[in-house]
Amino acid sequence: MGLVSAKEMLDKAKAGHYAVGQFNINNLEWTKSILLTAEELKAPVILGVSEGAAKYMTGFKTVSAMVSAMVDSLGITVPVALHLDHGSYEGAKAALEAGFSSIMFDGSHYGIEENIEKTKEIVALCHAKGVSVEAEVGSIGGEEDGVVGKGEVADPKECKMIADLGIDFLAAGIGNIHGKYPANWEGLDFEALDAIQKETGTMPLVLHGGTGIPADMIKKAITLGVSKINVNTECQLYFQEATRKYIEEGKDREGKGFDPRKLLAPGAAAIQECVKEKMELFGCINKA
To answer: Tens of pLDDT along 28-66?
Structure first.
């Protein structure tokens, strides 16, 4: 069916009280594993691409062409959105030009006035092409491909100001962070999340840093309006463990076990396992 905007799938998720997973991709194996799992489980899916990952894969055009061709070649029938994750002002424009079907412009590091001004421009550019837009208020903690956030809690009034610009879904900092969560992490701020939802109404909310958040917190966040949950680090950890096991067991030295297609296969299968677990937790299976 080709790539689609993320708006419809997330509006449905908000109304249906479940969340759609955004799973970040890093290469062909990542993309194939996520798409096959989404198709198997009949779940809508969002493929997230950071600017760093896009650069690693030689650019937005390469990523867009690879994903579009893979959706077609694999006969994927579930809705698939190709989404720029934490896009800069210039990155958002470049990804849009390259054929991404959904764009996150992260203006959270600007003052609220400049965030509003730039978000408004990105919304106009994207909506003219039928592309969905995610914006952010209150930076997400941790670091992801050079994007550093302290884990601020967003101001509900500022969230409404950004939501009113016509964006399609909103990422609001509620104490969540990228990467592994430290032992002294205080958890999600549900009071802030509730206040943000009251200001933004039916707009789907986004939870970044989905790796390591306890299942009960994930489920509670969904009841408070979170309709999109981002997962990246967890897939990487699953891939790492499976690959490590394959090499430590010496399988890369057996026959043609060194062939990258064989070497990467356990990691690719592990990604599928991770995605399946997350889709079950998010409640998006059979929602395509």
So the answer is: 999 999 999 999 999 999 999 999 999 999 999 999 999
Residue 255, CA atoms < 13 Å, CB-side half-sphere = 5
129 contacts 166 by C-beta, under 8 angstroms: no
118, 110 Cβ separation under 8 angstroms? yes
Instruction: Tell me the β-bridge partners of 153.
Output: 174
Q: Is 256 helix (H, G, I), strand (E, B) or coil?
A: coil
* pLDDT tens digit sequence for 263-276: 999 999 999 999 99
The separation between the first and the last C-alpha atoms of the chain, rounded to the nearest angstrom, is: 12
Picking from 103, 25, 104, 8, the residue whose alpha carbon sits closest to that of residue 71 is: 25
How many C-beta atoms surround the C-beta of residue 62 within 10 A? 12
Q: Which residues touch 254 (CB under 8 Å, ≥6 apart)?
A: none
pLDDT tens sequence across 118-129: 999 999 999 999
Contact between 20 and 9 (Cβ < 8 Å): yes
222: left (phi over 0), alpha (psi -120 to 50) or beta: alpha
Out of 85, 106, 155, 189, which one is annotated catalytic? Answer: 85
| Catalytic site includes residue 85 | yes
How many C-beta neighbours within 10 Å does residue 12 have?
18
Residue 164 Cα distances to 126, 127, 190, angstroms:
16, 15, 22
Q: b vs e for 115-138, b when ≥16 Cβ sit within 10 Å of the residue's Cβ?
A: bbebbeebbebbbeeebbbbbbbb
Per-residue pLDDT band at 176 (split at 50, 70, 90)? confident
Q: Does the predicted TM-score (pTM) go above 0.85?
A: yes
